[in-house]
Amino acid sequence: MKVCVGTIVHHPEDARIMHRQIRALLDAGHEVTYVAPFTHCNVTPPQEIRAIDVPRAVGIRRGHALNAARGALRRGVKDADLLLVHDLELLFALPRRRPTTVWDVHEDIVGALDTKTYLPPSARRMLPGVLRRIESRAERRLHLILAESAYRDRFAGDHPVIPNTTYVPETPPQLPGANRVVYIGQLSEARGALEMIELARRLRPHGIRLDLIGAADPAIRPSLRDAQREGLLDWFGYVPNNHALRMAQGALAGLSLLHDVPNYRQSLPTKVIEYMARGLPVITTPLPLAASIVGRADCGVIVPYGDVDTVVQAVLRLRDDPERRAVMGARGYAEARGQYHWPDHAREFVARLEEWAATPAPARNLHHAALA
């Protein structure tokens, strides 16, 4: 099977796209063409794939990236058996002549509007209705896969859920350490970046450092740079997922201090599973799915939203109790290995695409101008 995978929004080394789905397709013997913003993100494509470079869609002005994507997808789907797109924007760049097409729904698009600080208030009021209509139209014309079971309520049909899990090592990782805490993922105000900067300030007198591994939204970058210059924390910027997870091993705990916004309320922060897979105690805010998993496995501490004092206390208690750290880390690892190991879900993902590619439906287009 020949598959064309496309994104203009996500980083080319996005863990779900590159390290899970594309890797699963390659391991199953399929050929992959990948349309992604390689140059923009300074990424060298792996030799195993056919790469087509496009600009990245950033901020409110996305027309240039979308226009480039139209031509790139036309080239990418030549001789392809299936097209897999990962962005809402690409629904408006689909070639008229195309193979079976699948949209991977990564997020609650309407719920995420609260985190899009570049959008004017008028757009945030108008867009929910528009986005719901786009989703409904796409559902009638494309196959869908969902990253969360909670997304099913947004659609009329019954679409398969391919959860955003991770690779869990076969053998238990090293024990948690005692002198650093870690965060992996995109950094923004809604993801708790300001709280983590203050946490680093309060932990420094105790000899505990904070490692932040991930790209940052423009609005938060000056604060992160200032904190790094002050010596409060180490901010490594974007690191490919597999390397970031190796960097996290041996930390005292993994942080997930996301705020209570709609886009996060329905989703499981993948970072929570990644920390568990690396044997780290988790410190998380009480988002429903994160709190449920951490509470059920008893593999971490649940803290109130925005409460840095409680996070400091949780870190210090873990620092002072190595046995508790080790037990929590072991419980988290066992839960992750048993329930959230990506290869256990990869087979279903590949089989579903193979089934759809073997029974193609007539291609139908979405007729609307690109979103600005």
Automatic annotation (TrEMBL):
Signal peptide: none annotated. The keyword Transit peptide does not apply. Keywords: Glycosyltransferase, Transferase. It holds the Pfam family Glyco_trans_1_4. It is an enzyme of class 2 (transferase). GO terms for molecular function: glycosyltransferase activity. It comes from the Bacteria. Its EC number is 2.4.-.-. This is Glycosyltransferase. It comes from Sphaerisporangium dianthi. The lineage of its organism: Bacteria, Bacillati, Actinomycetota, Actinomycetes, Streptosporangiales.
